[in-house]
């Protein structure tokens, strides 16, 4: 599906000044590295050209613009998350595995997650993932429309938590520490007569600093299993 987005004749046929033979995969590799090291502002043809040792305009031989490249990067992460995935005879367990793979892949690229987890890549890895997820729900007996709606809820839960947790990971360490200490300091000091509900759960409030991904995933899968026709 990625093939043909840029005509083959427009692709570079000779090495760059640094001796590197450009390819779409090489540019995606570079984009992942630059954004991981320097943040979203690093996703520019100027920075890519400097890192690859080529004229920045050469990037346009492979991608229409930086948004097109961002979608390719997002699709790469989806591909990484699903690499080696195989279906079993337990559709609930397979959906849990899919969600955890997605969450882990974006956690490994937190700065990309904040930029791209909510995008539709329209590329082959995403298409394969959607095919797999909807197929799992249909194997549980859901009709076509229900399978699509429930898959949307499932993948949005996985991607939403992936983006949220990845955005937290992308914060400077001191800001992460401040957010975490709010539940052990600020909330612990609130007066009980003003906030009786918070006082009743005071000892457990530090749990708010943890990711709720597994809890949300468990609730969603339990609801799906309870409604499954089979």
Automatic annotation (TrEMBL):
Domain HTH tetR-type: 21-81
Taxonomy, superkingdom: Bacteria
PROSITE patterns the UniProt entry points to: HTH_TETR_2 (PS50977)
UniProt key word Transcription: yes
Pfam families tied to this protein: TetR_C_1, TetR_N
DNA-binding region: 44-63
UniProt entry keywords in alphabetical sequence: DNA-binding, Transcription, Transcription regulation
Stored InterPro entries: Homeodomain-like_sf, HTH-type_TetR-like_transc_reg, HTH_TetR, Repressor_TetR_C, Tet_transcr_reg_TetR-rel_C_sf
Name of the protein described by the UniProt record: TetR/AcrR family transcriptional regulator
Organism name: Streptomyces aureus
